[in-house]
Design goal:
Length: 296
């Protein structure tokens, strides 16, 4: 038999994005403090409360050029889109039975399933989840005597799980002028950039995930009817092969909170000014030298 499910669900999404003026360091008169300028031990404000163009980090400008511009002004956010969240599932099963002799029975079963789901977003925050499984079983039943039956089964199962970020395979970090240590193009992706008060960029830092597991099983069971009693014995042997690759922070994870551009001892209302100055409060990047993503 074969079954298929195609599910389409549309939803309106809202996001908060920097305006064109904010990307140039203009926050409409809101006081922005210069972390490099002190007076009596306290930060002083930028002239005219605007970050000079010469102080804006080139990498930050390149990153912000990948952000869409706002397209609305509703309370939920200044950017909206109607997105499809599609799910495609397929499943097929095949079974055959054959009576070789009155005492010998054989059956074969094969099953395959596949599922693909897209999680839509913006700023390379979308993701694609793929799950594929295959399994096969061969069973042989031998009626040894009217009181004794032997069942032998051999089975194999394959499980594949891939969680892939949007933009996988593109070296965005180098495009932005940021460091990246992996040289494997299959692991190139966008850096994860978190800016307080705005929609993040680049998706989760703990993807991609590549998983491929195999299970091999051999079972044998004997059922023996002893009249008032019955006896059943046998064995079960299983071999597992687990292959999992999940390198984290491949292209770097950067967090901007506004801690550098608020008044001394305080933070700015958002992290965007810190981003413009190229001042993350934290950054993490994986150095892939001598790193095995398949081991803990």
């Amino acid at each position: 038999n074969w079954e298929q499910l195609k599910l389409r669900q549309f939803a309106t999404q809202f996001f908060e994005l920097p305006t064109a003026n904010q990307r140039q360091g203009n926050f409409g008169g809101t006081t922005i403090y210069d972390p490099m300028a002190l007076s009596s031990g306290n930060r002083t404000a930028f002239p005219n409360n605007q970050i000079p163009t010469s102080r804006i980090d080139p990498s930050s400008l390149e990153i912000l050029s990948h952000y869409p511009l706002p397209n609305t002004s509703v309370a939920q956010g200044n950017y909206t889109q109607v997105a499809d969240n599609p799910t495609n599932n397929n499943q097929a099963n095949l079974r055959g039975d054959e009576n070789l002799t009155p005492s010998d029975l054989l059956f074969v079963r094969y099953s395959i399933t596949g599922s693909v789901q897209l999680t839509p977003s913006i700023n390379l925050n979308s993701g694609n989840t793929t799950i594929n499984t295959q399994s096969g079983v061969i069973g042989y039943t031998r009626i040894v005597s009217p009181r004794m039956v032997n069942d032998l089964k051999v089975g194999v199962q394959r499980y594949i799980f891939d969680l892939l970020p949007e933009g996988l395979g593109t070296n965005y970090a180098s495009e932005f002028g940021l460091p990246i240590y992996t040289t494997d193009p299959s692991f190139f992706r966008a850096p994860t950039i978190s800016v307080s008060g705005y929609t993040s960029y680049g998706g989760a830092s703990n993807v991609p995930v590549f998983r491929a597991d195999s299970t091999y099983e051999l079972t044998d069971a004997v059922s023996w009817n002893l009249g008032r009693h019955s006896l059943k014995f046998g064995g079960d042997v299983r071999v597992y092969h687990a292959n999992n690759s999940q390198p984290q922070n491949l292209a770097g994870t950067y967090s901007f909170t506004g801690v550098f551009t608020g008044a001394t001892g305080k933070s700015f209302s958002t992290g965007l000014c810190d981003l413009l100055l190229g001042l993350p409060v934290s950054e993490t990047i994986l150095n892939t030298a001598n790193y095995d993503a398949t081991r803990l």
